[in-house]
Specification:
It is built from 9 helices and 20 strands. It has helices spanning 29-40, 163-167, 171-178, 198-202, 209-212, 214-218, 313-325, 337-347, 379-389; strands spanning 20-22, 46-50, 59-65, 68-74, 80-84, 99-101, 104-106, 113-115, 120-122, 142-148, 151-155, 184-194, 226-231, 235-240, 268-273, 277-282, 285-293, 299-308, 353-355, 369-371.
Length: 396
């Protein structure tokens, strides 16, 4: 179903100044439906899995592309495919488990059976079907995919550019985080449903960290050097220096903020891919934040922690503990974010605009060089958002 076209006279009023964002877009159902159509089902690549989550033939993971349920499966031939998670007979959801290993997916309604390559291999009472019925016409609907550094991307659009073009200058920084070979092992997940529109999560900036997060200040991480820059269709890269804390005694276990295999000069590397995927290495942890919108007022995020396959057990455990306890959804230096996302949502019910200030050099033109703690690194992706959504900027 296509999203309803918003009448021209009902479009959000987008001001001439690029640092001003209409607050109403967080609250409008018609805008949200248009976002699904133009962004989530439009010409963007979306991160749906990492090969470490489905390393063996028969492994699968369920997830969402926008609000559409999908299955990411490694077939018995070793190939990774992404399918819509719906029986091609009467659209019944096929798989409800978060992950597992199966040679076949069976629909519980009428017992249609699909192998892990998505092929229809069995259906009861086939002799009574339409005269032109052929199993090959009813294989699971497959979605276009691509892979980089073990990250599996999917797109619902034939117009999406190739993945290299989409990732652009962010690729070397993804390599810094995951290793170019992507040779990782899944450690586990923390999953959370934020009480906010996906754009509140998408709009998290570099300005807030030392101001909002008390532990960030206690560890004196706001004093490090770093940089951020925009790249590709709305991506942002952050590279930050993290000093070794001089006062870790306030922690019961100071090892949680220790460096075991990371250069503190690039102690934190974050690639925020448009629209809402985060790929992160902070200290020694390796993390991918898989995210999708869950209605107008919800955003679900799966914080997945990884180790390198060649890590010894002690290093793997160290990475897992850092990932869960530092910047997970209730992590030491990130626990306040959930409250802020919700408060942004509530505050956006008031009239007017969200107005960026820190680092604004030009109100009318996009630029791409920012200080580490500027909030304006988000403005290029807001401009991509505005253009893709078709919102015209007023002459001012």
């Amino acid at each position: 179903m296509n999203a309803p076209i918003i009448p021209t006279d009902a479009l959000p009023v987008w001001p001439a100044n690029l640092n001003e964002i209409p607050k109403e877009i967080w609250e409008r159902e018609d805008v949200y439906q248009l976002e699904l159509e133009r962004i989530y089902y439009g010409p963007f690549w979306h991160v749906v899995a990492h090969t470490a989550e489905i390393p063996n033939p028969g492994d699968y993971k369920t997830f969402f592309l926008g609000e559409r349920p999908i299955i990411v499966a490694r077939g018995d031939d070793g190939q990774v495919r992404v399918f819509y998670n719906a029986c091609t007979h009467r659209a019944t959801l096929l798989e409800t488990s978060a992950m597992g290993n199966k040679s076949e997916f069976e629909c519980p309604y009428h017992r249609w059976l699909f192998n892990n390559r998505g092929e229809l291999v069995g259906c009861p009472a086939e002799e009574d079907y339409t005269v032109d019925f052929q199993k090959g016409d009813f294989n699971l609907l497959q979605i276009r995919t691509a892979e980089y550094a073990g990250v599996i991307f999917a797109t619902a659009s034939d117009e999406t550019p190739d993945l290299d073009t989409f990732l652009g200058e962010s690729k070397p920084y993804i390599d810094k985080i995951l290793g170019k070979d992507g040779d990782l092992e899944l450690l586990g997940y923390q999953k959370v449903l934020y009480n906010s529109n996906w754009k509140a999560y998408f709009d998290n900036d570099g300005f807030h960290a030392p101001l909002l997060h008390k532990a960030f200040r206690m560890l004196n991480w706001q004093g490090g050097k770093g940089r951020q820059f925009a790249t590709g269709p709305g991506h942002i890269v952050f590279v930050s220096q993290l000093t070794v804390p001089s006062n870790p005694e306030f922690l019961k276990d100071p090892s949680i903020v220790s460096f075991k295999g990371t250069d503190p000069n690039e102690g934190s590397v974050l690639v925020a891919l448009m629209p809402i995927t985060g790929i992160i290495k902070h200290l020694d942890m390796i993390n991918i934040r898989f995210a999708f919108p869950a209605g107008l007022y919800g955003t679900e995020v799966h914080y997945a922690s990884f180790a390198r396959k060649d890590d010894d057990p002690e290093m793997a455990r160290h990475r897992m503990r850092q990932g869960a306890n530092l910047i997970g959804p209730s992590g030491l230096v990130s626990m306040e974010d959930a409250a802020i996302f919700s408060r942004i949502q509530q505050g956006s019910r008031t009239p007017g605009y969200a107005i960026f200030q820190k680092g604004v050099k030009d109100k009318r033109n996009v630029w791409h060089d920012y200080k580490q703690n500027d909030e304006t690194g988000n403005l290029p992706k807001w401009e991509v958002y505005r253009e893709v959504m078709g919102f015209q900027r007023s002459a001012g």
